[in-house]
Amino acid sequence: MRSKRDRLDRHLKKVLSISRVETQQLLAKGEIFLDGQRATDIQQLVGEFTQVVVAGRVLQNKLPRYIQLHKPQGVVSATRDDKHQTVIDLIAADFAEQLHLVGRLDFNSTGLVLLTTDGRWSRRLTEPAAGVEKHYRVTLDKPITPEIVEAFERGLYFSFENIITRPVRTAFTDPLCVDIFLHEGRYHQIKRMFGHFQITVLSLHRLAIGNVVLDSELAEGEWRELSQDEVFRSVI
Asked: Which residues span the membrane (predicted)?
């Protein structure tokens, strides 16, 4: 998703229909404020969440939204779907239609889903180069062996994409329940990794994305906004 940013003079031309010269005059008078600071240059960038005040008039004061949702099984990670309930359908808020997903979960998977109106934030969490770690709890139909754990740590070859997966960490809670920590999100990656060794994934539950941990007090289908601290720590 593209970042919605524009030069100050262009932004004011769109909003107030004023010229570049008129913007310079307002700057000279000290009548333009961006996020509470007096603007000094017509080339300063204005984002979709920048507070813009001109001559005491608030032109823009839109707040970004950051949501965590406990996704139930059988809900689609999409903004619209003609057949199934979507994660957006679960969010009873006037800004719900403005949200987009920060990564997805399969139809039958459960756990943490992040949604936001902030495209820059979502890119920082999902860009492959960022390598943000995702934590899943997986239940299996049979236990995995130390050899499989070593194979995960080395990386597995996926012929369809002609790639080798990044190293994956594992931790065991019991013989048929394993925590998986990975830094990418290939199509059905976890199911395919276990399927490579003829092991079936019975359930898959996401516990964390980066430093954002699923709130243990959220029941399936419930959501809440992230705190400022959670948003800040998520991209450290």
From this structure: none
